[in-house]
Write a structure and sequence with these properties.
Layout (H helix, E strand, L loop, with lengths): L4 E2 L4 H6 L4 E2 L3 E6 L5 H14 L4 E5 L5 H8 L3 H4 L3 E4 L4 H18 L3 E5 L13 H20 L4 E5 L1 E4 L4 E4 L2 H7 L2 E7 L5 E8 L8 E7 L2 E5 L1
Parallel strand pairs: 3-7, 3-10, 4-5, 4-6, 6-7
Antiparallel strand pairs: 1-2, 8-9, 10-11, 11-12, 12-13
Helix pairs in contact: 2-3, 5-6, 6-7
């Protein structure tokens, strides 16, 4: 039986993911600055809100109300009251807010949970070494527990590091975050001004390496042929 999915709010991204975000799993997006991670999260949140569901949005990088308004357009006022926003200021508080999200999950039964970004505040704790990695792993496992218990998709975004020996970049968080994520999409800026690419790097039923190009526009993203 085909797993239940929830739309990403963009037809090309839905196709790349095999029909949208799979419930009971974590989908990860990773990429460098301005690669489109937050915009894709906001598009997905707005699509879920428009469908009548609540959304939990944990934003460690500063949620843009103006960007939310641009993407939601005339629906902003009618859907905003179903958006539950958490804005941690440090990595430890991020873990606390993930735990506190359970109260909303129990009472409102949201259709989507977003963590943007899982590793922005983790970077500031890297001097703690293994302790920071274990904290991150616990946080992501906690999110996976929510996905399964409340039957919803979870989206996490991830920052990147450059592997100078291979001359390419990878998502932060080590193998734990990679293994826990059932689908992973790499976002990158291309040489052509304004153009970005979304590439599937992990999926259990779709070919890895498939991609589409897009540009960021006022009301979301626009795909390019």
């Amino acid at each position: 039986m085909r797993p239940e999915r929830r739309t990403s709010g963009n037809a090309a991204l839905d196709l790349l993911l095999g029909g949208g975000f799979e419930i009971r799993t974590i989908t990860q997006f990773y990429g460098g600055p301005a690669s489109g991670k937050s915009t894709i999260c906001t598009i997905a949140a707005v699509a879920c809100l428009r469908a009548g569901h609540a959304v939990i949005f944990i934003d460690s990088e500063g949620f843009s109300i103006e960007r939310f308004r641009q993407i939601a357009c005339e629906d902003t006022e009618t859907i905003a009251d179903r958006l539950f926003l958490f804005e941690p200021v440090d990595f430890e508080q991020q873990g606390v807010m993930i735990t506190e999200a359970d109260r909303v999950l129990k009472t409102r039964k949201p259709g989507l949970l977003v963590l943007d970004s899982a590793t922005a505040l983790y970077r500031t704790d890297l001097e703690r070494g293994r302790d920071a990695m274990q904290m991150l792993t616990r946080q992501v496992i906690h999110l996976l527990g929510y996905a399964k218990r409340y039957e919803l998709p979870v989206i996490v975004t991830n920052q990147v590091y450059m592997d100078t020996t291979k001359n390419t970049y990878f998502g932060l968080g080590g193998t734990a975050l990679e293994h826990i994520s059932k689908a992973i999409v790499r976002l990158e800026r291309l040489d052509m001004p304004g153009l970005r690419r979304a590439t599937l790097v992990k999926h259990r039923s779709r070919p890895e390496g498939e991609s589409f190009d897009f540009e960021i526009v006022q009301d979301g993203i626009r795909t390019r042929e």
